[in-house]
Design a protein that fits this description.
Blueprint lengths: L4 E8 L2 E8 L2 E7 L2 H14 L2 H4 L3 E5 L3 H13 L48 H6 L23 H4 L1
Length: 159
């Protein structure tokens, strides 16, 4: 059974001190932030040996894993303040160049394209063609009508 490795984080001014204990060893380092300190713990775990790589690492801040997780996730998810944007002063215009008072000539714009005809739209559902029955094709008319006559049903006609 793998013995857990304990990583204890202590804030010191702007830096973090971290102590990793496990596998009978204790390693200590300083890092410039909690994220860097967490990365340093991963390096220490690799230094402890092959057996330590599969071990559970318990990260503690003020004796609490929850407090460490909250501080670490806050640092990971918070956005750094954006640096102020510096707008450089406009350079002095060279001779013959356009100035703010007299803008350079704008080239002539091309004429707008004539309106195009709208494309045809498909108004029937393609499934309608498959479900609608086709009308039966007209049959050619017979060349001559066949006349059927019934045989006389009188007794004289039968004889």
């Amino acid at each position: 059974m793998a013995v857990p490795i304990t990583a204890i984080y202590v804030p010191e001014d702007d830096d973090w001190a971290v102590t990793v204990t496990g596998q009978g060893k204790s390693l200590t380092a300083r890092a410039p932030g909690i994220i860097a300190a967490r990365d340093r713990v991963d390096q220490f775990v690799e230094e402890l040996g092959a057996e330590a790589k599969g071990a559970t690492v318990v990260h503690l801040l003020n004796g609490s894993a929850l407090e460490f997780t909250a501080a670490y996730m806050t640092a990971r998810l918070s956005r750094p303040e954006p640096a102020p944007i510096e707008v450089p002063e406009p350079a002095a215009p060279a001779e013959g160049a356009a100035t703010a008072e007299a803008p350079a000539e704008v080239p002539e714009q091309p004429a707008p394209k004539p309106d195009k005809k709208p494309k045809a739209k498909l108004t029937a559902n393609i499934g309608d063609a498959l479900t609608t029955a086709k009308p039966a094709a007209p049959q050619p008319a017979a060349a001559s009508a066949i006349k059927v006559t019934a045989a006389a049903s009188t007794p004289a006609a039968r004889a």
